[in-house]
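Example record

The entry below shows one chain as it appears in the dataset: sequence first, then structure tokens.
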Amino acid sequence: MESSHALDVFAALSQATRLDTFRLLMEQEPLGLPAGEIARRLEVPQNTMSTHLAILARAGLIESERHSRSIVYRAVVDRVREIASFLVQDCCGGRAELCAPLIAEFTPCCDPKETSHA
């Protein structure tokens, strides 16, 4: 990832409603949520939410798909991987053991053995 793309991601996430929106959509993976439901859950007017969703989409953090009369938004998990990799690509001067605590923080939330929320 180039620095300019990373800055787009950080700029998109530097506003509270957009950060909350992105985190909500990460929680809802892989199904996503309709735009109106996102606005309702975050108590944001739909026209305001539309603007925030557009900014997140331009940064490549979310994508949308039309389902009948509604538009469902999903987080782009690969973009999260890209930005995390960008942040730590030169971590600890090549001494992987120093980055182990950082990697360990991601492991509990991403255990493939866990079942989905049913």
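Notes for this example: Helices lie at 3-13, 16-27, 35-42, 46-58, 77-88, 96-106. The mean pLDDT is 86.
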